Amino acid sequence: MVRLSLSGVAIALAALAGLVGYRASTFTATPPPSAVQIPELSSYAIDAEAAASRLAEAIRFRTVTIVGDDGEPAEFERFQAWMQARYPAFHAAAKRERIGGRALLYEWRGSDPGLPPMLLLAHQDVVPAPEDTRAAWDVDPFAGIIRDGAVWGRGAIDDEGSLVGLLEAAEYLAASGAAPKRTILFAFGHDEEFGGEGAISIAASLAQLHRRAWFVLDEGMAAIDNHPLTGKPASLIGIAEKGFATLRVRAVAQPGHSSMPPPETAVSSLAVAVTRIHSMPIERGLDGGPALPMMRALAADISLMNRVAISNEWLFRPLLRQRMAGSPVALALLGTTVAPTMINGGVRPNVLPAEAIAMINFRIHQRDTAESLMRRARNAVSGLEGITLDWAAPPNEASPISSTTSSSYALIAALSRASLPDAPVAPGLVVGGTDARHYSEVAENVYRFQPLLLNTEDMAGIHGVNEHVSIENFERMIRFYIGLMQAGAM
Questions:
Q1: Which of 101, 108, 303, 344 has a CA-to-CA distance to 11 between 20 and 30 Å?
Q2: What does pLDDT average to in each consecutive run of 10 residues of the chain (490 residues)?
Q3: Segment holding 328, helix H or strand E
Q4: What are phi and psi of 401, to 5 degrees?
Q5: Which residue intervals of 220-289 are DSSP H helices?
Q6: Bond before 159 cis per omega within 30 degrees
Q7: Active site (catalytic) residues
Q8: Around Cβ 214, how many Cβ atoms within 10 Å?
Q9: Which CATH architecture has domain 41-241+399-489?
């Protein structure tokens, strides 16, 4: 009997090993729907230095929108006038419409109205460069300086680089006499950094006209020189983005003098509530979002041990959870994040406040909803007296997940491979927010990708200090956009 039992165990282990090995060996990406014909991107006669000079000019416009403020309207007016003056062939070929005051929608009409349009996004506004950060900048953030082979200043990457790159590409084609078969729409919002009302208005206008795009392409992801999973370059095309919601936690208690405090004060109750919500269970895993497709696409460059673990998550889930526990990047990719960000209560150190308030920011993964998170948060603080929860503003749910087998994804991926042949293409999840999230109802698919190869220093400049884009990267972007319009619409 013992021998038979041991034999059975050996057979079971061998079967398990075979299953694990089979799943690891077949862990690959879904092949594209068909081969895509794209032009030779190196054939375009582009003056990269002149294009970089125009991007530097664009950076000098302080198109900053501040939340709750109108920003500087005159700067947007001047910037839009500059766009018309610098790109005359495109403006002669395309119809320009202002929507909601400062947002712009261009229509370069195609000859075949039966083809759904291509919709290309960028935003005119940039985040501020606060005075207390100016000393850390090597240049004036709005001087638009070219040095060391790069264009420096606020917006060089986010997102005037994309906007000017699109205009450069459209001007190149329009000046050459090209005429699209497929209509190309360009949507340039004015307040992406603080809510995206411009994009909301443009999307609503398209919906009212019953216009549905073939696909949307916006910023949000790029190629990185050192992917954390492979240690090699990878081009990441955002196929979805996380939602955004801020939970307001309010605690009320009896006010009074601190010399005779009750067992719990508003501040102590708030602290307990915030701790419970911060540590409430959040499901994390490879399924339910872009993580698993991304890993499949990069499987050839993933180490054998990691490939075995990832492809057999059902078996190695505890190990994977242990490994990702210390990685903010992994935690953000694989589930909803919970981040207490603000707390306020009391005006004097010796006075017990009647009320204390905290804000907790959620970046919502596709497997969760604002409703389910609120339910869990209420359960977490159940039993605490004087605690109430509500959303500080209407939540933005996680976006739908776009296809990786569509003709539009195949086109973007082919152009990315042509632009960056050493960076395999993979889908990704945008953990921040973009204007693209507002267009899911008016497009078959929505993608987020800039054809830039970025390193850690480049990425640190986005919303940080010393933002810059290399001229090589900017030229790559222009060639990509020309190829996209030519292959997708001409």
A1: 303
A2: 60 71 78 80 98 98 72 87 98 96 96 98 95 94 97 97 98 97 98 93 97 97 93 96 98 93 95 98 90 90 84 75 74 94 94 97 97 98 97 96 95 97 96 96 98 95 96 98 97
A3: helix 328-334
A4: -95, 125
A5: 266-278
A6: yes
A7: 125, 192
A8: 20
A9: 3-Layer(aba) Sandwich (3.40)
